[in-house]
VWFA domain-containing protein
Amino acid sequence: MLHCGRAIFLWALLSHMCESFNIEDSVESFNFIHPAGLASQAGENLSTSDEGRSPSFFGYNVKLDTSGSFMVGAPYFTDTTNTSDEKNSSSRIPTGNLFSCHLMGNTNCSSIRPPDLQPGNAFGQSLELSAEGDLVACSPTQKQMCTSVNYNPGYCYKTSDLGQAWNPDPRTINTSCPIFALDLMFLLDGSGSVGADNFERVKNWTKAVANNFNINDDSTRVGVVQYAHFYDSLPLNEQPYIVTEIALGEYNSTAAFGEAVDKIDLFSFTTYTAHALNKTVADFKSSNRFDSDSTAKVLILLTDGRSSDAEYLEQSAAYVRSLGITTFSVGVGRAVKKELRVVATGTDTDERVYYVSEFSGLNEIVNRLRNAILNFALEGSSSGDVSAIAYDLQLAQIGFSSHYSNKKSV
């Protein structure tokens, strides 16, 4: 009767894998298979263990081997052998696990996961067994810490001896941080309405945003233009109040850039935003990688009022964007939201538009702006759907697809 019960259980497990999370280990006359290391008693539901353990999703994925064993994934498994008392320590973050279980004999399953899993890997969420007996199991959420971004490419491991030795799968071993370059220009309103005290806040905000990007290795080059009044009698490159304060890439360290920003003095006067946008084009074109497809070009406008040359604003903003420069608008106080939208996208939406009522609130948008730049400009999306871009996805691509799906599995 016991062997019959196991056979019925195994058939049900293989036929309905999506329903086999956190299996009770004993119900009536059936002896249920459970992973080693999880405390269980007759009739106890593992998801409500007195240890306060979260569901392990044991049974999420199952593959049968010809040797009389089968592999069971538990992508939300937490390693409880670590006795750390820190409630929020990384040891309490699920790493996932993979178990080898046998059809006959002891119903405990043995862990066969690789030894170097990272917290949050969700190992065992995807696994596939080839006809030749090679097993590939994946960590689709494995992270790489890259410059300025959390990159989640996933990772796969391969074993030919059912977990005695694991090796990186050759098809994912070369996954590495995305290679990108960024030319970033700040266009700062230096009109009289800003005021000296608020301009100090603007400068601190500029440094805070720039600090989110790696200036030190030349992957990111940053520049600053301050603008106020425009004289019709002078060419754009000779305007005394539309000036490149920091040339693009002039400083290759965060400290040096910050010191240069601190030395900028407020102009005062009027607010010729359209002409200032045209000025930034020359700054972008000064970069020797302006025409490179691998270099993202981003302009951040910060202003607190109505432009003095509003009749030219739509044309100038469209010209800037036509060159492949992604524009972001940050408005403060009396900034005109319609003009912010014109500069950002030329549409009636608030895409790439940020607004705060006071200069003291600028720091509240630093992280949002940073994420938008990384997700939208560096990912190269044309949809503008920042929430759907891969840099900040909880789950990524590699590891979800079965490597051996085109072969006959055992």
